[in-house]
Amino acid sequence: QLQASGGGLVQFGGSLTLSCTASGSIFSVKTMGWYRQAPGKQRELVTTITYGGTTDATDSVKGRFTISRNNANNTVWLQMNSLKPEDTGVYHCYAYVYTSWYISREYWGQGTQVTVSS
Description:
The protein has strands at residues 2-6, 8-11, 16-22, 28-37, 44-50, 55-57, 65-70, 75-80, 89-98, 104-108, 112-117. By secondary structure, it is an all-beta fold.
C-alpha cells in the first residue's frame, strides 16, 4: 500500500512537499511518482522517478518541481516550488511494485489535496 502525506493550502509562489511510502510485500519498487487531477479534468502525470534515479516530468512543472526517492525505505518526495493556481488538484502517489521476481502491479495512494490560491 501507499501512504502519502503533505499537501494543503498555499499562496501563489509558495512551496509544498509531498511524501509517499510504499509498504507491504515488496521485492522492489521500479517506478514511483505523482499524478494529479484537477477539478473537471482527467488525471495527468506530474513526475516519476525510477529505481535508478531517472526522472520524467510534464513540461509545466519542469524547473519548479523536484522528485527524489529513497530506495532503502521505498519513499518518494515531491518538492514543489513556485506554485501556481493551475497546480491545484488532488495529487496521487503511484508505484510500480515487484512483489517477487516475476509478479508486479501498480499501486495508487489515496490522494492528497494541493490548493494554490492566487
